[in-house]
């Protein structure tokens, strides 16, 4: 009776988890600004730099940022992120700074404000991980985003700090949707922290 139904249900769930586990899962950098304007159009240059986050690439050139695991916790596939992730994180930071009221100019890695009084914010990604933690009946997707912010003005560095955040999302199946939700939440948290610290640093002008 009920025992047999439970056994079949458990077997069906395990089969579903196992089948999903052998397919690579794609996630992306997705961000929607949430801030309110508190700055009156101050100019700011946002320039991404190369990532320090260790990430291998697959044959298609996508970044391998985590593992897909079966119900036994074994690595069976990869979590993939599209190329250009650093630029897209810098885009997210620039968008949130614009929502805060800054007049943002996007710059390349080589763009330096040397003799300019326009502050430059340089972003270096230090951590970018999307993974999963198998449980008895659910799977927890976990994501961590970290980056270093350097602020330069008048040809000198006025501040440097690290921002790090993590988030988890629980689901019945180890799908890309859950991992995407965890990554987006972790990115939102990191961006919010960074903008608060950037604004405070620019207001004081001290390291």
Question: Would you write up a description of this structure?
Answer:
This protein is 31% helix and 36% strand. By secondary structure, the chain is of the alpha/beta class. Strand 7 (120-134) and strand 8 (139-153) form a beta hairpin. Helix 2 (85-100) crosses helix 3 (176-204). The chain is elongated and about 55 Å long.
Q: Strands of the biggest beta sheet: in what spatial order?
A: 6-2-7-8-9
Describe the main β-sheet briefly: 5 strands, mixed
Form type: elongated
Alpha-carbon Rg, integer: 21 Å
| Strand/helix succession | HEEEEEHEEEEH
Concise structural overview:
The chain is of the alpha/beta class and 207 residues long.
Main features:
207 residues, alpha/beta, four-stranded mixed sheet, 9 strands
Ordered list of secondary-structure elements with their pairings:
Layout (H helix, E strand, L loop, with lengths): L1 H19 L4 E3 L15 E6 L7 E2 L5 E7 L5 E7 L3 H16 L2 E4 L13 E15 L4 E15 L2 E16 L4 H29 L3
Parallel strand pairs: 1-5, 2-6, 2-7
Antiparallel strand pairs: 3-4, 4-5, 7-8, 8-9
């Amino acid at each position: 009776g009920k025992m047999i139904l439970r056994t079949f249900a458990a077997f069906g769930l395990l089969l579903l988890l196992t089948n999903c586990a052998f397919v690579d899962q794609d996630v992306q950098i997705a961000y929607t600004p949430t801030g309110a304007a508190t700055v009156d159009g101050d100019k700011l240059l946002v320039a991404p730099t190369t990532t320090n986050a260790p990430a291998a690439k697959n044959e298609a050139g996508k970044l391998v940022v985590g593992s897909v695991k079966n119900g036994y916790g074994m690595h069976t596939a990869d979590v993939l992120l599209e190329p250009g992730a650093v630029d897209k994180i810098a885009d997210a930071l620039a968008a949130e700074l614009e929502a805060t009221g800054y007049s943002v100019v996007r710059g390349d890695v080589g763009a330096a404000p040397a003799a300019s009084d326009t502050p430059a914010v340089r972003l270096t990604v230090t951590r970018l991980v999307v993974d999963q933690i198998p449980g008895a009946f659910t799977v927890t997707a976990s994501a961590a985003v970290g980056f270093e912010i350097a602020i330069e003005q008048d040809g000198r560095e006025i501040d440097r700090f690290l921002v790090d955040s993590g988030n988890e999302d629980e689901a019945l199946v180890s799908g890309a949707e859950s991992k995407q939700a965890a990554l987006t939440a972790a990115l939102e948290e990191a961006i919010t922290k960074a903008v608060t610290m950037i604004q405070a640093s620019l207001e004081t002008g001290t390291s």
